[in-house]
Write a structure and sequence with these properties.
Elements lengths: L9 E12 L2 E13 L4 E5 L6 H8 L7 E6 L2 E2 L5 H11 E4 L11 H11 L4 H14 L15 H13 L5 E5 L7 H18 L2 E6 L10 E6 L2 E7 L8
Parallel strand pairs: 3-8, 3-9, 6-7, 7-8
Antiparallel strand pairs: 1-2, 1-4, 4-5, 9-10
This protein binds adenosine-5'-triphosphate.
């Protein structure tokens, strides 16, 4: 039976993030109301300085709002201890970064294994699951390569495999295509979309590239720290 009372994956009410720069207070985000459900594929877009990274950091529980409330899976983050917040982050959230952030001395396979090993999984299990993930992103033939031997698009695919290895409910990707050419950017977005759809994971990625917006289900536009438009462009998939 459908569970009608399941809370949204993320719920933001009047969220603000203010930075104090000497005497001056800067509102990087102000009054953001947002509900994100399981299985959504969302682009956060807007010009430089509009608050995309700040929002990604809040959604990924890397940072906390200075006003308003944010709940992850129904649990208000304001009531989470630092320890609890990092537990939730490690268990339920994967990250993809603009500059890939792979460990240069490790192979693609070892990079993808890392989150499982940090979580205490036996090496054999981690190795098998990482191999499966790399195959899923089309890199079965590149598992032994170190990042320097991979193209930017391939490195980002390794990073996606790494973000997914713990089967997170949410993947937050801050400008994942900023260092890629258009062909690779489209490939990365399509890959995230396909995997999100297949596994019911929620993907939120930020971009300033409007050409990518046609490939998402929902477009959240930021300007000067405010959500100025929130468009559902494809039916929400949710998770059955
Ligand atoms: N740690 C910080 N300290 C002070 N101000 C900050 C900090 N982080 C961000 N800001 C400011 O907050 C505003 C929003 O920044 P943010 O990085 O979220 O925007 P963005 O849309 O991601 O920009 P970009 O596309 O250039 O990455 C900007 O004015 C920025 O200068």
């Amino acid at each position: 039976m459908l569970n009608q009372i399941q809370p949204p994956l993320l719920e933001l009410r009047g969220v603000g993030k203010q930075y104090q720069l000497g005497e001056v207070a800067l509102d990087a985000l102000a009054g953001v109301d947002l509900r994100i459900e399981r299985g959504e594929f969302i682009a956060v877009w807007g010009p430089s300085g509009s608050g995309k990274s700040t929002l990604c950091n809040l959604l990924g529980l890397l940072d906390t709002p200075t006003s308003g409330s944010l709940a992850f899976d129904g649990e208000p983050t304001a009531r989470m201890s630092d320890r609890r917040r990092s537990d939730v982050r490690n268990r339920a959230i994967g990250f993809v970064f603009q500059s890939f952030n792979l460990v240069p001395v490790l192979s693609a396979l070892e990079n993808v294994m890392l989150p499982l090993q940090i979580g205490g999984a036996p090496e054999r299990t981690a190795r098998a699951e990482a191999a499966e993930r790399l195959a899923q992103v089309g890199l079965a033939a590149h598992m032994a390569h170190r990042p320097a031997r991979l193209s930017g698009g391939q490195q980002q695919r390794v990073a996606i495999a790494r973000a997914l290895i713990t089967r997170p409910a949410l993947v937050v990707a801050d400008e994942p295509t900023a260092n890629l050419d258009t062909e690779n950017a489209v490939m990365i977005i399509e890959l995230m979309r396909r995997i999100g759809r297949h596994e019911g994971a929620t993907f939120v990625f930020s971009t300033h590239d409007e050409r990518l917006l046609g490939r998402v289900d929902r477009q959240l536009q930021l300007r000067d720290g405010r959500a100025v438009s929130d468009r559902q462009v494809a039916p929400a998939r949710g998770v059955s």
